[in-house]
Design a protein that fits this description.
The complex is a heterodimer of chains A (about 300) and B (about 475). With about 300 residues, chain A is an alpha/beta fold. Chain A is built from 10 helices and 16 strands. Chain A folds into 2 domains: about 110 residues, Elongation Factor Tu (Ef-tu), domain 3; about 160 residues, 3-Layer(aba) Sandwich (Rossmann fold). Chain A has a 7-stranded antiparallel sheet with strand order 6-1-2-5-4-3-7, sandwiched between helices. The longest helix of chain A has 15 residues. Chain B is an alpha/beta fold and about 475 residues long. Chain B has 3 domains: about 150 residues, Fumarate Reductase Iron-sulfur Protein, Chain B, domain 2, CATH 1.10.1060.10; about 160 residues, FAD/NAD(P)-binding domain, CATH 3.50.50.60; about 150 residues, FAD/NAD(P)-binding domain, CATH 3.50.50.60. The chains are: A alpha/beta (about 300), B alpha/beta (about 475). At the A-B interface, β7, β14, α9 and α10 of A face α14, β7 and α15 of B.
Chain lengths: ~300, ~475
């Protein structure tokens, strides 16, 4: 879990060894490991040597399962530059994500394009609180790892509806203290992640907050830290196709200006994000997703 | 129909040149096309092309001018009279050889070129009547070649031992690839999307340019030895300097990229698309098909803002996806519409409504964040602007609104900094487009650029012209002993 961000020297080595055999050649993205993290969240470890070698925390990939499949943006949750693999944590919300979650060992993802987006602006020193809600915890994980690797004190606050929905606790424990919150009190602290975040802010000494999760959670975190003047970085999972700025579907309003999450983000200052617009735009295809998920589950005999 | 048999019915193999006077007597032949009200509800190609008889009859209309202006009118300088003469002699294979030696993607240009403002504009026949239907003939010959691949032997150039990386597989990149592979260079194309073709695949709809035709054009290049690496984003997966250190030369043809929105309130409401997003969902991702994994909104009253080919493609797509009303909102008049004339005529015939001299001022929304209408101002034409077109001027107090549940912004694109940001040594102009000299060489040694990322949003054929020119410059560079970084 240490040193997940390759140094420039490591990057060069990987690049050279690759090009010696197959310069810029095509990679086959096998699934080499998989795990069910929560009732609807799956982690896939996938071969993607080039991306594994150069990705930085906060970056994402666009994944296309195979011919005819949708293009889906997924944050790179972790990477192993030596093994040439990246970790993708996927929540099944529609047919396309369900299909990815159902991939078996040895199966192949046809396209993984990236790494996309800007790397996280990491604190240099001090104390960072990393807040993760649901599948967003997997997005916060590489940030926590990178912060810990550079000596920043990390406290993680992660949450879920109930115990089985809490993910990445052990990985985050390597980076520092972890406070787990559940809505029903079945595990850890009873309550929302914002309750634990408020206590940390009250106690003082927090230099930055990184919050990733459902829109209401990120908005609540940003509102909570605003009076304390603590910089709060959020990662926006807006709808996108290409991930390179070409479609404009991922546009969000930040500080009153339209920005593209794919090329200007995906991380922004949470105190300047228009979360209502983000939430609105995220449900553009809600009906389609629900119908496609129902159809997929009917066809695959699964129900959540 | 009797005319067909008398004029063009001679067996193709025994055709003699026709006297000029007889040629002058033949009127321009249109292509067969799907009925407007049928095609407005399907995605099949609108134009059905020429029959052999129609093609031969149209070929006979060409006067074989001693000084053919049409060649000068063509951005890739196709030897038009030559291929038409070969066709009229009944030698369609010879015509195809001639055409393909000048133009790497004739099936594409025969369908999407604005011939009326290029080759056909200067055709002598146009002085006294209708010009030769050069585009229709190009399409006929090109389609014949595509359907008779066996008649053509694979190219076997002497390997040069040099390699070229091409960034982007749109019209400029594909054209350059075709030219460079013919000259014996190794060619690798890097494409950001999962499928090659660029705007030919994601932008231009099936009903205007069938995707299997683009695929076959790409297949022809691959058969000739071009390597295509999809899902590889130069500027992200690899940087331009990295490419340059491994290839002897690089051609950057990434297209213009970022969509421009109207800059009016409400344009982030649900139901407002850029034309790029709308067309990509429909074309590249196949969202027009039932059961598609990728969704697209099916607007019932769709307003498309803009007057170019992309606007026409968007509005006609909306019609095909079931819109009760599909409306073009354009701030100038019919005469200034930048789209190909044929597209405008097709759109009108299919029932598209044109709100001309109209500019949107606000996208209206409902309480759930969905588009509910468009507020507009009427315009009148004032003095000519820098482009020579009369500038639209607002008519005060002419505000009006109309209901709409979807809005598509098709008002252009601007440069995408993704690649240029990864190459600090690459000079760009004030708008972010790559600066080149007249040979399309950039400020980086061995790196050339062309198409929309150099000239701003333009046409397929101008991009192809750049691809051809860049290939010539790259070939000269590679053979000129001037060494690239990896030599």
């Amino acid at each position: 879990m240490i040193d997940l961000v390759p140094t420039p020297a490591e990057r060069d080595n990987v690049s050279l060894s690759q090009t010696a055999s197959a310069p810029f050649g095509r990679e086959i993205h096998h699934v080499v490991a998989r795990a069910q993290l929560s009732p609807n969240v799956t982690r896939l470890i996938v071969e993607a040597p080039r991306i594994a070698a150069i990705r930085q925390p906060g970056q994402f990939v666009i994944v296309r399962r195979g011919p005819g499949a949708e293009r889906i943006p997924l944050t790179i949750a972790d990477a192993d530059a030596v093994a040439g693999t990246i970790s993708l944590v996927i929540q099944a919300i529609g047919a396309s994500t369900s299909e990815l979650c159902a991939l078996a060992l040895g199966e192949v993802i046809t396209d993984i394009a990236g790494p996309l987006g800007n790397p996280t602006e990491l604190l240099e020193t001090g104390h960072a609180v990393c807040v993760g809600g649901g599948v967003g915890t997997a997005v916060v994980l590489p940030i926590a790892q990178a912060l810990a690797a550079r000596g920043v004190k990390v406290t993680s606050v992660i949450g879920g509806r109930a115990r089985e929905w809490v993910i990445c606790e052990q990985e985050l424990a390597v980076c520092g203290q972890v406070v787990v919150c559940t809505d029903d009190g079945s595990y850890g602290r009873h309550g929302f992640v914002t309750d634990a975040l408020r206590d940390l802010c009250e106690a003082g000494g927090v230099d930055g907050v990184y919050a990733v999760g459902p829109v209401p959670m990120m908005r609540a975190c940003a509102e909570l830290t605003r009076p304390y003047g603590i910089k709060t970085t959020v990662s926006l999972n807006s709808i996108m196709i290409d991930g390179t700025g070409m479609c404009g579907g991922c546009r969000v309003s930040v500080d009153g200006k339209t920005q593209y999450a794919c090329v200007d983000g995906p991380e922004f200052d949470g105190h300047t994000v228009d979360f209502k617009l983000l939430a609105d735009r995220l449900n553009t295809y809600r009906e389609f997703e629900q119908a496609s998920l129902a159809a997929w589950q009917a066809a695959h005999g699964e129900a959540l | 129909m009797e005319d067909l048999t008398t004029l063009a019915g001679r067996a193709a193999s025994e055709r003699e040149p026709m006297p000029k006077k007889e040629r002058m007597g033949i009127g321009r032949n249109g292509m067969l096309e799907q009925e407007p009200l049928v095609r407005a509800h399907n995605f099949a190609e609108v134009n059905l092309g020429y029959t052999e008889q129609l093609a031969l009859m149209e070929a006979d209309r060409c006067l074989q001018c001693p000084r053919p202006y049409c060649i000068e009118g063509c951005p890739v300088a196709v030897n038009i009279p030559n291929f038409i003469r070969l066709l009229s002699e009944g030698n369609v294979k010879g015509a195809a050889d001639s055409l393909l030696s000048d133009n790497a993607l004739p099936c594409v240009t025969g369908r999407v070129c604005p011939q009326e403002s290029q080759c056909e504009l200067v055709c002598l026949r146009g002085k006294t009547g209708a010009p030769v239907a050069i585009g229709h003939l190009e399409r006929y010959v090109a389609d014949w070649a595509l359907n008779n691949r066996g008649a053509f032997s694979a190219i076997k150039p002497t390997p040069s031992g040099r390699s070229v990386a091409i960034v982007g597989s749109g019209p400029a990149g594909l054209t350059a690839a075709g030219e460079l592979i013919k000259r014996g260079h190794q060619v690798t194309i890097f494409e950001a999307f999962h499928a090659p073709g660029g705007v030919l695949i994601y932008g231009i709809p099936e009903f205007r340019l069938p995707k299997d035709i683009v695929q076959k054009e790409v297949d022809r290049l691959v058969a000739d030895g071009v390597v295509i690496e999809p899902s590889t984003i130069i500027g992200k997966t690899y940087t331009l300097p990295e490419l340059k250190s491994h290839f002897d030369a690089v051609f950057v043809a990434v297209g213009a990229g970022l969509p421009v929105f109207m800059n009016v309130p409400g344009e982030n409401l649900k139901g407002v698309y850029s034309a790029n997003e709308y067309l990509t969902r429909v074309n590249l991702m196949g969202a027009y098909r039932a059961g598609s994994a990728t969704p697209v909104l099916h607007g019932q009253r769709v307003a498309v803002v803009g007057g170019g080919n992309v606007a026409m493609d968007s509005v006609r797509t909306a019609l095909r996806l079931g819109a009760q009303e599909a409306i073009i909102v354009y701030r100038r008049s019919l005469d200034e519409l930048p789209a190909r004339k044929e597209e405008v005529h097709h759109a009108q015939a299919e029932g598209v409504r044109f709100e001309l001299l109209t500019a949107p001022t606000e996208v209206l929304g409902d309480e759930k964040g969905w588009v509910s209408g468009l507020r507009c101002l009427r315009m009148e034409l004032g003095e000519p602007d820098a482009s020579g077109r009369r500038r639209p001027v607002e008519i005060p107090g002419s505000d009006f609104t109309f209901p709409a549940d979807m809005v598509v912004a098709a008002i252009g694109t601007k440069s995408n900094p993704l690649l240029t940001a990864s190459a600090p040594g690459l000079a760009v102009n004030e708008w972010g487009y790559i600066a080149t000299d007249e040979n399309l060489a950039t400020s980086m040694d061995g790196v050339f650029a062309g198409g929309d990322i150099v000239r701003g949003a333009a046409t397929v054929i101008l991009a192809m012209g750049d691809g051809k020119k860049a290939a010539r410059s790259i070939d000269a560079y590679l053979r000129g002993g001037s060494t690239a970084a990896s030599a």
